[in-house]
Amino acid sequence: MSNNENNELTLDEEEGIIELEDEEGNVSRFEFIDRMEFNGGVYYALIPADYDEEEGAAEFIILKETVINGENMLATVDDEDEMNAAGDEFLKRFAELPELDVENE
After folding, report:
1. pTM of this prediction?
2. Could you give the CA distance from residue 31 to residue 17 in angstroms, rounded to a whole number?
3. I need a surface site. Which of 34, 72, 84, 92 has the fewest CB within 10 A?
4. Which of 13, 15, 104, 30 is nearest to 74 (CA)?
5. Residues 18, 28 contacting (CB under 8 angstroms)
6. pLDDT tens track of the chain, all 105 residues?
7. Is 90 left (phi over 0), alpha (psi -120 to 50) or beta?
8. Contact 55, 49 (CB under 8 A)
9. Where are the domains of the chain?
10. How many CA atoms lie within 13 A of 28 on its CB side?
């Protein structure tokens, strides 16, 4: 049985930075990439805020919005099939993003 980590969500929308606090009180900063509604849930794609573009492609993490005690929180997705389906959907969405150097005809 995996440990379900519930992360408290603090979003600074101007910077697009989300701070998540785990059960031990450790705070990690992530850059908000995308949010989507999928299969009845709301999912977030995030990359570590300290990611260095020169290191190559960043792996994004997927968290699911959940309500605990009346508060919106982001939780890890424990179901591998659900995680893979959401990940595939995010990859499709990323592929459709307009490229910066596309010429308008």
Report:
1. 0.73
2. 5
3. 92
4. 30
5. no
6. 334 455 555 555 556 888 888 889 899 899 988 999 999 999 999 998 887 767 666 688 999 999 888 888 888 899 999 999 999 999 999 888 765 444 444
7. alpha
8. no
9. 6-95
10. 14
